[in-house]
Amino acid sequence: MRNGRPIQRFCSLAAAAVLALVLCLPALAGAKQSALYDTGAIKVLKSQYKALTGRHKLLLKDQRELLSQQNKLADEIEKLQDSGPGILGRMRLERLLAENMRLSQELNEVAKSLSDNDKARDRKRGAVYRAYSTEMEVTARKMRQTGDRKRATQLAHRFYELRELRWQWRTARTVEADFSRLVVKVSDLDGPKELTAKAQILDDLVRKIRAAIREIDKKIKRLRREKKLGEDFDTMVKEMNLFEEGARFLRRPDEGDRTDPDEAPQADADESGLHVPPLDPTAKMAPGADRADKSIQAEIKRLKHEKALLKKLAGDLAAKAKILRRKADELRARESR
């Protein structure tokens, strides 16, 4: 049994290595796929997103280190306070408290940087997503203009690959919670000046909420355009019956950064790639269309719900601002008597 343990250990390690390799294959295939169809502009955007992600990791590291320092400092302050310090002890306590204040300020700065970084990464993801959408629109336009079946097949290949790549960059960030957490408290001691100032704060929030609603309307419009683009393209593919027998789009491992659909991978490539099932004029869905369609519909539904919440919140805040102004006017009238 003792002699068998090294063999068992070796087999376990070998199995773990094989499993790790298998798990890595989809990521490697995705990276290769991306390299084939990313334009220069998309590569730049992805590079910028990668830099932001790297910055995010560094900020998290800084935050952990600062928190660790502050926790140690807090323990030291607590021990010193419990010991009943003398003059020298109080002087040291003052220095420790000042150091704790400095660490708190640095933590606040890091927290703000993290928040800014999160927003920047969301914007960059959206930019990559829209860049893929633009490439899909260009591909669809070329598809409508071509009369060559071979070129149409290559363009269809490109469109469906771009749709798969774009899927990875979808975002679903909500802004309603950012506004609903904001509270403007009113005190019985507030005079006309304070009430008017708080009403103005509410008015500013209402303006920002309405601006957010306009952005949501733009997103919904863009998503509907994307949905129609996919449906129109699928219709073109079915009408041309490009893949009536089914097809697998194959890729060579050394294709490079190809962006021209005329240079699409040839049929003697390896076995990786996007499979396209048989299509015919009566088929309801094309490759990836079902998932893309459901994703877009779900996002439109979510955005509509968020818009309704924001409209209600804007109405409530506007009504509260009106009440505060009326109360301020009443107080001024009393003071003038």
Q: What gyration radius follows from the Cα positions, in whole Å?
A: 30 Å
Oligomeric state of this protein: single chain
Name the poorly predicted regions: 9-29, 245-285
Strand content: under 5%
- SSE arrangement, N to C: HHHHHHEEH
Sheet with the most strands: spatial strand order: 1-2
Q: Helix segment count? A: 7
Record field, number of beta strands: 2
Helix content: over 70%
* Outline type: flat
The largest sheet, given as strand count, sense and whether it forms a barrel, is:
2 strands, antiparallel
Rounded mean pLDDT score: 78
CA-CA gap between termini: 102 Å
Q: What structural class should be given to the helix and strand makeup?
A: mainly alpha
Explain what this protein looks like in three dimensions.
The chain has a domain at 172-244 and 279-337. 76% of the residues lie in helices and 2% in strands. Strands 1-2 form a two-stranded antiparallel ribbon. The protein has helices at 4-37, 40-82, 87-145, 149-167, 176-180, 192-240, 289-335, and strands spanning 247-250, 273-276. The protein is mostly helical and 337 residues long. Helix 1 crosses helix 4 and helix 2 runs antiparallel to helix 3. It is flat and about 90 Å long. Mean pLDDT is 78; it is low at 9-29 and 245-285.
